[in-house]
Write a structure and sequence with these properties.
By secondary structure, the chain is of the alpha/beta class. The protein folds into 2 domains: 5-80 and 180-295, HUPs (Rossmann fold, 3-Layer(aba) Sandwich), CATH 3.40.50; 102-177, Rossmann fold (3-Layer(aba) Sandwich), CATH 3.40.50. It is built from 9 helices and 14 strands. The protein has helices at 18-32, 54-65, 80-92, 103-109, 159-163, 177-187, 203-213, 248-258, 272-282; strands at 5-8, 37-42, 74-75, 96-99, 111-113, 116-118, 135-138, 144-149, 153-158, 166-169, 192-196, 219-223, 225-227, 293-295. The chain has a 3-stranded parallel sheet, with helices on one face. A 3-stranded antiparallel sheet has the order 4-7-10. It has a two-stranded antiparallel sheet with strand order 5-6. The protein starts with a strand and ends with a strand. It binds glutamic acid. Glutamic acid (GLU) is lined by residues 9-11, 43, 181, 195, 199.
């Protein structure tokens, strides 16, 4: 059996908020309760969406809360050469192709998939004459990608009918999340991915890429994402409040509760060290509700 390697991969678009704390905590406890390693990767590929100082702030909060990572933090912004070489591999086998379509052209002719529009395939056999192709896409075929999510159960998606040819490098020059995450999960030998269920529908694309690039497929577990009373994911946009750094026990207690772990009330009065001991000892993935979205009062 390969040793357990888990990870937390935040995007530095803002400070750590309750929703990302939940993902960090679940991936950490699952790794530690398997005597596994836990790594942190900063997904800072898209400088346009990055908030200055957020990467450092996230790491500082994790550290203050008592999370310990086992290797130096990996920064995606420093790994362009690896994404370029994966892209070259896919282009050489004829799987990746340049696309010249604008957003408007796609939305005018595409049908809705499970996670965005299904690209109609206009540039599959070459971009129309005179148009500059700036993005790169991967061809998908009529295969079903199926996997067993440790929380959400059996998931199966048809690549052609539900996803479509997806972007590997965007027209603005940024490498796409789907490509970078697959290259880095393989490079860091990640065996178990525990993250928010907002990424559940990305997983089939990632498995598709892993197969095409000859990478192993990790195990997946998607925890419910925290939503406000309106059912919107807690994020900077929905004004999720930042975590209070001064009260880590309270925040971790609430995150444990959200994850269905039933922490006893007394734990709120304890110190950080005891809270972590309780959490690692009692952690049980099976108790996490099989839901993609859950209302959180925080
Ligand atoms: N960076 C992504 C996010 O913050 C998570 C990526 C992942 O866990 O695969 O939403």
């Amino acid at each position: 059996m390969s040793p357990y390697v888990g990870r937390f991969a935040p995007s530095p678009t803002g400070p750590l908020h309750f929703g990302s704390l939940v993902a960090a905590l679940a991936s950490y406890l699952e790794a530690r309760s398997h005597q596994g390693k836990w790594l942190v990767r900063m997904e800072d590929l898209d400088s346009a969406r990055e908030m200055p100082g957020a990467a450092d702030s996230i790491l500082k909060t994790l550290d203050t809360f008592g999370f310990e990572w086992d290797e130096a933090v990996l920064y995606q912004s420093q790994r362009h050469e690896y994404y370029a070489s994966a892209l070259a591999q896919l282009a050489n086998t004829g799987l990746a192709y340049p696309c010249a379509c604008s957003r408007k052209e796609i939305s005018d002719s595409a049908t809705q998939g499970i996670d965005g529009l299904i690209y109609p395939g206009t540039c599959r056999h070459g971009a129309p004459c005179g148009k500059e192709a700036k993005a790169l896409r991967i061809k998908v075929d009529d295969t079903d990608i199926q996997f067993e999510d440790a929380i959400q159960g059996n998931i199966s998606q048809n690549m052609a009918k539900q996803i479509g040819d997806f972007v590997l490098k965007r027209a603005d020059g940024f490498y796409a999340y789907q490509l970078a995450v697959v290259v880095d999960d393989a490079a860091q030998h990640i065996t178990h991915i525990v993250r928010g269920a907002d990424l559940l529908d990305s997983t089939s694309r990632q498995i598709y890429l892993q197969k095409r690039l000859g990478f192993p497929t990790p195990n997946y577990a998607h925890v419910p994402i925290a939503a406000n009373a309106q059912g919107e994911k807690l994020s900077k946009q929905t004004l999720a409040h930042d975590i209070n750094e001064k009260t880590p026990v309270d925040a971790l207690f609430l995150a444990l509760k959200f994850l269905g772990q039933y922490p006893p009330h007394q734990l709120q009065q304890t110190n950080l060290k005891h809270l972590w001991e309780w959490a690692i000892f009692h952690w049980d993935l099976v108790k996490i509700p099989q839901q993609r979205l859950m209302i959180s009062s925080d």
